[in-house]
């Protein structure tokens, strides 16, 4: 009877050992997908079973999808000599934990925990590490645009970062976009036929929820032929006083501006003074001062502006009046050499007194 018990125990022990020998190494747990910010720390864990006679490795897959892989560790030892990487092995749970500190964008990818059984046979599981990065606008995005009025315009904006940034377009001061509305979403902003009113600063904005986002200013210059406006087409002034004739010019590129009277180009001299004042790249105020007006200086004056896209002109008529106009005739009247000077205010006072005396005389009759 005792012999039978010993035989039974021997058979059971043999069967148990044989069953254990037949158990295949397995990976019982691996970390879920990890999403981390640049500069952070991540831990990737892999728990295994029945690997006493086998090697356990951490390997980073080729980020380009090729056959090259980067071995990181084997067993409880690191292969990769990088101070940012560390490896822990917990014997109780047979867990290999790979730690990466100061995460870089290049650390993103798939990490494989592998049990190497033979050169052609391995057990593998993978975990993806995604590295969040604030958006940045790529160099192949539009920086500036110079185009003629009426032409089509295409502005492009591309951004990197993780998650993939969203691109939107805005104008300075939230002005309406040529496409309508104050915001346009998409990588490419198309304007079918640009107008001069569309010029200015456009913003390409990239956002992905990491940080505050980023933007690029895009200067849009629209070349257009001059437009001349005359705020006061008819101006009166008395003899021997000065008068300013003004034209507003809108054009890009900045135009050449001239003043003409009776087909004669006027220059700065004792009779005329010319000045141009640019209020912006596209706007210029031009002023012709007629000095100490003489009879022959009354008539039509033409202010003319021209650039490579065309020419425009405005007409200002200067006519004679009895009473001086102030400004600019707020100083002294000049009646030739040695003549007595009479201030504008004195002349106006005398004229008022004459009118009052005249009305008083008429009221008595």
Written account of the structure:
The protein has 365 residues and is mainly beta. The protein contains two helices and 26 strands. The protein has helices spanning 2-22, 344-364; strands at 26-30, 34-37, 42-49, 55-60, 70-74, 77-78, 85-90, 95-100, 109-118, 121-137, 144-148, 153-156, 159-162, 166-171, 184-185, 188-191, 200-207, 214-229, 234-237, 243-252, 256-261, 264-265, 272-278, 283-290, 299-307, 310-320. The strands form five sheets. Strands 11, 14, 15, 17, 18, 20, 23 and 24 form an eight-stranded mixed sheet that branches. The radius of gyration is 44 Å and the shape is rod-shaped. It starts with a helix and ends with a helix. Residues 3-12, 14-21 and 332-349 have low confidence and may be disordered.
Keywords:
rod-shaped, 365 residues, mainly beta, 2 helices, 7-stranded mixed β-sheet, disordered N terminus
Topology:
Layout: H1 2-22, E1 26-30, E2 34-37, E3 42-49, E4 55-60, E5 70-74, E6 77-78, E7 85-90, E8 95-100, E9 109-118, E10 121-137, E11 144-148, E12 153-156, E13 159-162, E14 166-171, E15 184-185, E16 188-191, E17 200-207, E18 214-229, E19 234-237, E20 243-252, E21 256-261, E22 264-265, E23 272-278, E24 283-290, E25 299-307, E26 310-320, H2 344-364
β content, as a range? over 45%
End-to-end span in angstroms? 168 Å
| Major sheet | 8 strands, mixed
Q: Return the string of H and E elements.
A: HEEEEEEEEEEEEEEEEEEEEEEEEEEH
Low-confidence stretches: 3-12, 14-21, 332-349
Query: Compute the gyration radius: what is it?
Result: 44 Å
Shape: rod-shaped
Helix content range: 10-25%
Residue-averaged pLDDT, rounded?
87
Helix and strand content put the structural class at mainly beta
Q: State the helix count.
A: 2
> How many beta-strand segments?
26
């Amino acid at each position: 009877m005792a012999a039978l018990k010993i035989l039974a125990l021997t058979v059971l022990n043999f069967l148990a050992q044989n069953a254990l020998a037949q158990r295949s190494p397995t990976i019982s747990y691996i970390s879920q997908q990890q999403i981390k910010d640049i500069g952070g720390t991540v831990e990737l864990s892999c728990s295994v079973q029945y690997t006493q006679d086998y090697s356990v490795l951490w390997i980073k897959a080729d980020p380009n999808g090729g056959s090259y892989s980067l071995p990181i560790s084997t067993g409880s030892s690191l292969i990769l000599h990088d101070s940012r990487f560390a490896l822990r092995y917990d014997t109780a749970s047979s867990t290999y934990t790979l730690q990466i500190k100061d995460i870089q964008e290049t650390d993103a990818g798939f990490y494989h925990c592998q049990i190497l059984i033979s050169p052609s046979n391995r057990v593998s599981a993978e975990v993806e590490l995604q590295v969040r990065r604030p958006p940045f606008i790529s160099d192949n995005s539009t920086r500036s645009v110079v185009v003629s009025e009426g032409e089509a315009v295409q502005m492009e904006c591309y951004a990197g970062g993780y998650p993939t940034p969203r691109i939107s377009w805005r104008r300075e001061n939230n002005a309406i976009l040529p496409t309508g509305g104050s915001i346009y979403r998409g990588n490419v902003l198309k304007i079918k036929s640009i107008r001069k009113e569309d010029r200015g600063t456009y913003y390409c904005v990239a956002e992905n929820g990491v940080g505050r986002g980023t933007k690029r200013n895009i200067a849009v210059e629209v070349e257009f032929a001059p437009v001349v406006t005359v705020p006061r087409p008819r101006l009166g002034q008395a003899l021997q006083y000065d008068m300013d004739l003004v034209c507003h010019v809108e054009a890009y590129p900045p135009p050449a501006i001239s003043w003409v009277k009776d087909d004669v180009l006027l220059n700065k001299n004792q009779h005329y003074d010319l000045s141009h004042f640019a209020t912006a790249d596209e706007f210029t105020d031009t002023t012709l001062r007629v000095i100490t007006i003489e009879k022959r200086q009354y008539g039509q004056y033409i202010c003319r502006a021209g650039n490579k896209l065309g020419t425009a002109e405005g007409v200002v008529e200067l006519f004679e009046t009895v009473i001086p106009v102030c400004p600019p005739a707020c100083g002294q009247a000049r009646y030739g050499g040695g003549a007595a000077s009479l201030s504008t205010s004195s002349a106006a006072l005398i004229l008022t007194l004459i009118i009052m005396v005249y009305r008083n005389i008429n009221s008595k009759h």
